[in-house]
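Friendly challenge for the regulars: who can give me the structure tokens for this chain first? No prize, just bragging rights.
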Amino acid sequence: MKTMRQNALLRLLLSCFLLYMAWPSLQVQGGTLASYFWLAWLVFFLLVAGSNLATVMKIPTGTQLQSPSAAEEKRYSVSR
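First reply, four minutes later:
Bragging rights claimed.
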């Protein structure tokens, strides 16, 4: 698991570096199509950065349902 966190950290650093390199040309837009391209690029960056940050911080992706134990099943069962 440690290598997975290291890989996620490296991907996060790489995406931040690419954003750092692209930021100066973000303000020099040509037209509407260029604006849509940069908007899509920034949304993609946020998705990549968010997923890698969640991996580094070990945020669970979903809830895990646990089955009740035998004692709890007996306690909640209807007696006859």
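The helical segments are 2-26, 32-57, 70-76. The mean pLDDT is 80. Your move, everyone else.
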